Amino acid sequence: MEAARALADLVEISPQIEAAAVVAADGELAGSLGVPEPRTGILARAVRELLDGAAAFRSDQGRVTQLHAELAGGDVFAVAGDELAIVAVARERATPGLVFYDLKRCLGAVVDET
Predict the structure, then answer these.
(1) Are 14 and 99 in contact (CB under 8 A)?
(2) Based on the number of CB atoms within 10 Å of its own CB, is 92 exposed (0-12), middle (13-18) or buried (19 or more)?
(3) Alpha helices (runs of H) in the chain, residue ranges in sequence order
(4) CA separation (Å) from 37 to 9, 34, 40, 51, 105?
(5) Which residue has the higher pLDDT, 53 or 90?
(6) How far apart are the first and last CA of the chain?
(7) In the chain, helix, strand, coil percent, each to 5?
């Protein structure tokens, strides 16, 4: 499934998600929904840098496959696959387990199409 359609489905089934983007391994944006246009490139680079930076702190040199950051007024979630990653901004008090599940399903739908 193309990224735009997968993201539209994600927001439809996960009402707690306000915005999301799919990012390639090189930091290029593959698609986004609800992210203001001037910020899409910044978001794409930031999520790749955050995932890569977090992996640098692992003692086993493994990669980081998911992140959750709580912010005032909402949360940011990221899930990384081999080639793509997905990042989402969720409303305050979102249920992390459900958000991660939905993000993994969405990312899987995009990967299956590529």
Answers:
(1) yes
(2) exposed
(3) 3-13, 40-55, 96-113
(4) 20, 9, 5, 22, 25
(5) 90
(6) 8
(7) 40, 30, 30
